Structures are given as C-alpha cells and as structure tokens.
Amino acid sequence: MPGPSTAAIIVAAGRGSRFGQEMPKQYAMLGGEPVLRRTLRAFVEHPRIDRVTVVIHPDDRGLYENAAADFKILPPVSGGATRRVSVLNGLSALEDDPPGRVLIHDAARPLVSPDIILRSLDALDRCAGAVAAVPVHDTLKQSDEAGSIRRTVPRTGLWRAQTPQAFHYDEILKAHRATNDDTLTDDAAVAERAGLTVALVEGAEENLKVTTEQDLARAEMLLRTAPSGTIRIGSGYDVHRFSANGDHVTLCGIAIPHEKGLAGHSDADVGLHALVDALLGAIAAGDIGTHFPPSDQRWAGADSRIFVEHARDLVAEAGGMIENVDVTLICERPRVGPHRQAMCTMISELLAIPANRVSVKATTTEGLGFSGRREGIAAQAIASVRIPA
User: Fold this and answer.
1) Nearest-CA neighbor of 380 among 371, 156, 388?
2) Which pTM does this prediction carry?
3) Residue 293: which residues within 8 A CB-CB, separation 6 or more?
4) Burial of residue 357, with CB atoms counted within 10 A of its CB: 0-12 exposed, 13-18 middle, 19 or more buried
5) Would you identify the CATH topology of the domain 6-225?
6) pLDDT score for 19
7) If you ran DSSP here, which 8-state letter would residue 81 be given?
8) How far is it, in rounded angstroms, from Cα 366 to Cα 373?
9) In 3-state terms, what secondary structure has residue 131?
10) DSSP label at 266?
11) Number of Cβ atoms within 10 Å of the Cβ of 348
12) What 3-state class would DSSP assign to 3?
C-alpha cells in the first residue's frame, strides 16, 4: 500500500537584509542559476515528494517565475510579515487537499541532499516531527554587555538546527494556528510549544544557509569541489509475446489500441519491465523477478507502474539520483511514434525527473526474428544513476 502523500513548502518570502545586495538572496546566482532553482530541484526530483509549493514575497513574482520555470509545482503562495506567518500561509494553502506529511525548507539552503530529505521523512514513522541538525563542536562562550566572556556554555547535547523540518501535516498546521508568537525561530519551536515530540536527524555542514555574500561564496566553492559521486549504468531487456485476445497493448505506461494484447503475469508492459531491470541493475539490486516473482498472485495483472516506483524508491534509499533513462521498443506494430511523447511524460512523472532526461525510441528488425514476424514485442533500457562516492 502506498504511504501518505508528502508535500514540500519552500519558504522564499524573506528580504535577506543581511545579504548585502538589492536582490533577495534566494534569487542570487549560484553556479549559473538562482539559489531558489537549485533548492527546488532537490525537492522536485526527490521520489518521496509528491507536491512542492513556494511561499514568495508578492514583489518577487517575476524573479520567482524565472527561477521556477519548467518545474511542475503548485502555484506560489504569498508570504506574510514574518517567517511564521509565511509558513502558516503555505500550510493553509494545502488544506483543500491535505497531504499526510509536509517538509518545510528554507529557499536559501540550496545544497540539501536527497539523503537528508529521506532521513527527515523516515523519522516521521516514530515521531510527530523531525529536524535536520548538526552537533555543536566549537566551544561556546556567552558574553556580557562589554563584550567580555561571562561564562563558557557546555556544548553537550547542543545542535544547530537546519531545514528541512518534517511533520505530520495536520499536527503542524494545528500547532501554527495555536500560536501567534513570532519570537519562535523555526517550525520545530512551534511544534515544541504545542507539546509535539520532535526528533533530531543527521544534517550536514554542506547544507548551509545563504545569509551573507560570504555564504554564497562558500556555496560556490562547495559546488566546485564537492565529489561528483559515481555514475553507475544499468541495462534491462524484456520480451512479451502477443496473446490471442485483447484490444490494446500497454507500453511505457500508455495503453495503445491494437488487435492483440501482450501475454504476461502482470500487464506485460515490456518497456517498463526493461526499465525496472535497468534501474535495479544500476544499484546491483537484483532483477524484477526478485522483487515481483511471477509465482506471486499479488502481481497477477498488476500495473507495471508499481514496479517502476519500487525501483525508483530503492535508488533513493541507496542515496542515488537518476540521471537519465533510455528505452528502446522493438516491434513492427503498433506504431510507437504517435505515443512517444506521452510515454516520456509518463516515465518522467514516475521517476520524478525532468522529461528531458527521458528517452523513448522505437525500431523494427526489418521483418527478421520473432518481432519481425509480429509474434511479440521486445524492449531494452539503459539507466544511469549517480551514487555518492
């Protein structure tokens, strides 16, 4: 059974008075694109995130449209006078179709990693909330008004809170509506005020918040020097014969009218089956039969999109990001060309990656072999996955 839906709220309504530029920090350029765009990509492409919305300052609409161009996200929400009000506005905007879980993240943290997002969400299985954080290692001093040391503060048990901060949607919405205290500095503090248990999960020093120009320069340096990870390539191949019955075939998630169907234990979607094996191969996780054995009646007639989503989630759990996929369908009939774009869109949505990273092609065998005799359809797929070094 699928888990509760998850929405991400990106808070981008601040003015960034400490940044030192006329343009708000979330729209400053980082590695050739706006900070907000890098932040959005981390959530839009994450397989566990179903919806993304951004809370913006009304005066920034043009900057926002440029930063969010081509991303499939919800319409932006206008922010308020404080961060707490802005977050409440974002939460309230989801109320007509409430998610089960929500991640709240600062737009100015563009280097958040997929595994931090995953850890934050997984913690909700045991707690009402979760906060990405890093332990304090430096010695802490408290000063007096003259700037002299008053005392040394014990650092045991102290953490620096980051975002994302994850919550069960209904509980954090209720907590925000129960307070009007703008001295609360983050959503975890709002949750704590409401008596909710909030877990700490491992963040990262690289998950920095761009507050000053020096922070932006550091983020640029991290982008240039961060390990690029390892690219792994997986391949898949599958074949299904035509059956005597049926009026359509399902290829890459798209039903195409045809005088015969394809025979198989599930829906016999040869394209998606090859894709699943390619994804599993890239992370050395077996093959489709290992995870969905044909002897198991649960998968009789199953929609192959379930298999793709499972493989996608396994890639994410391994800390991987799908770079691109390429599927080739091998058949004489039906004609694939008229449906190719729909197939690309379907795969893009299933894998939560941009459509320009998905390729679907078709070829024939010039009348040779079983596909040339129109006895069935074959497919091969290649997937590239970036795994942290």
Assistant:
1) 371
2) 0.62
3) 299
4) middle
5) Spore Coat Polysaccharide Biosynthesis Protein SpsA; Chain A (3.90.550)
6) 60
7) S
8) 10
9) strand
10) S
11) 17
12) coil
- DSSP state string for 211-265: -SHHHHHHHHHHHHHS---EEEEEEEEEEEEBPSS-SEEEETTEEEE-SS-B--S
Task: For 281-338, write each residue's pLDDT tens digit.
Answer: 999 999 999 999 988 888 888 999 999 999 998 988 887 878 899 999 999 999 999 9
Listed in order, the ranges of the chain carrying CATH 3.30.1330.50 are 230-387
E-strand spans in 148-203?
Answer: 149-153, 159-168, 198-202
What topology is assigned to 230-387 in CATH? 60s Ribosomal Protein L30; Chain: A; (3.30.1330)
pLDDT of the residue at 17:
54
Instruction: Return the pLDDT at 1.
Output: 40
Mention every residue, 6+ apart, whose C-beta is less than 8 A from residue 52: 7, 8, 10, 40, 43, 44, 71, 73, 74
Q: Quickly list H helices, the chain.
A: 35-44, 61-67, 83-93, 114-122, 169-177, 187-193, 213-225, 270-282, 288-291, 305-317, 340-351, 369-372
Q: Are 131 and 162 in contact (CB under 8 A)?
A: yes
CB atoms within 10 A of CB 75: 7
- What is the distance between the alpha carbons of residues 164 and 304, in angstroms, rounded to a whole number? 32
Instruction: Confirm if 135 and 128 have CB atoms less than 8 A apart.
Output: no
Residues of the chain with pLDDT under 50: 1
**Every domain range in the chain assigned CATH 3.90.550.10:** 6-225
Closest CA to 354 of 4, 116, 69, 27: 69
Q: Give the HSE-up count for residue 121: Cα atoms under 13 Å, Cβ half-sphere.
A: 26
Beta strands in 13-58 (DSSP E): 29-30, 33-34, 51-56
Q: Are 78 and 55 in contact (CB under 8 A)?
A: yes
Give the residue from 266, 234, 236, 237 showing the smallest Cα distance to 253.
266
